[in-house]
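Tokens in:
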């Protein structure tokens, strides 16, 4: 798939209730992996479309000739899908790209997040892309050295970028502090199929819960519960995580479920494979 391929070729058309979420930049795949499992435990149907041509999820995609691969209730595919039908099959499609430049599917995106670490060259490239982008929901800055610098000092004096400083002040930059365990999990996703993340850093967990809240109308308690089970490798269909509760008006209700009905995605001719 090249940069000129639109999401229309992914889902078979533009008339769909599916929410497309763009994740552009380095180190987007593990974030999509964790977030997808949280949303699955909020009874949402999720597809991660990895268009990075990288090995970020190689451990999960252990059978690369058979798509989509399903792991922990989340479907995964890459640029080798053929066509699609059943446009309402997924609640969310995370489209992971190294760069959004030249990609013409952004008009279908509900939200777009740009992701970078704090290496000077990487951050400069991300900032350049963000400034020229038509839309941005936020920036996720990973491996932030909060033990050395405050965000204000970093953006004002080290990055020396007023645009990024203003984004931070608008609370549109989400910081994930540098953490050894987070790095270990990210590397393991490249080699191992387990995908465990029991001990993600507090900073990473905070950003994931914020993003889940931005993407859904779910309450904070439900999001925290969904994350708790996701990091333990549990899926709502198996463990009945979201039980019948009481709505705001005192009425009994079931949690809003995802689009688990009808249709389907047609990918590579070998069909769907589960791990």
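Residues out:
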């Amino acid at each position: 798939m090249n940069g000129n391929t639109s999401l229309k070729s992914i889902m078979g058309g533009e008339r769909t209730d599916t929410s497309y979420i763009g994740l552009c930049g380095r180190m987007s795949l593990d974030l999509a992996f964790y977030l997808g499992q949280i949303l699955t435990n909020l009874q949402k149907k999720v597809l991660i479309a990895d268009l990075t041509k990288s090995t970020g999820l190689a451990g999960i995609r252990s059978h690369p000739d058979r798509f989509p691969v399903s792991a922990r209730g989340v479907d995964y595919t890459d640029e080798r899908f053929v066509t699609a039908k059943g446009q309402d099959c997924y609640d969310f499609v995370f489209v992971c790209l190294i760069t959004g430049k030249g990609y013409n599917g952004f008009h279908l995106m509900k939200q777009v997040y740009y992701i970078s670490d704090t290496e000077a060259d990487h951050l400069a490239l991300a900032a350049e892309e963000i400034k020229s982008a038509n839309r941005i929901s936020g920036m996720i800055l990973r491996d932030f050295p909060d033990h050395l610098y405050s965000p204000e000092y970093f953006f004002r004096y080290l990055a020396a970028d007023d645009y990024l400083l203003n984004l931070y002040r608008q609370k549109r930059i989400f910081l994930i502090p540098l953490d050894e365990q987070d790095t270990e999990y990210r590397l393991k996703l490249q080699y191992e199929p387990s995908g465990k993340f029991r001990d993600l850093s507090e900073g990473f967990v905070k950003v994931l819960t914020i993003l889940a809240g931005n993407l859904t109308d779910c309450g904070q308690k439900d999001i925290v519960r969904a994350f708790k089970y996701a990091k333990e490798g549990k899926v709502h269909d198996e463990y009945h995580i979201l039980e019948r509760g009481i709505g705001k008006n005192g009425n009994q209700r079931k949690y809003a479920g995802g689009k688990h009905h009808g249709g389907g995605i047609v990918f590579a001719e070998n069909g769907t494979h589960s791990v």
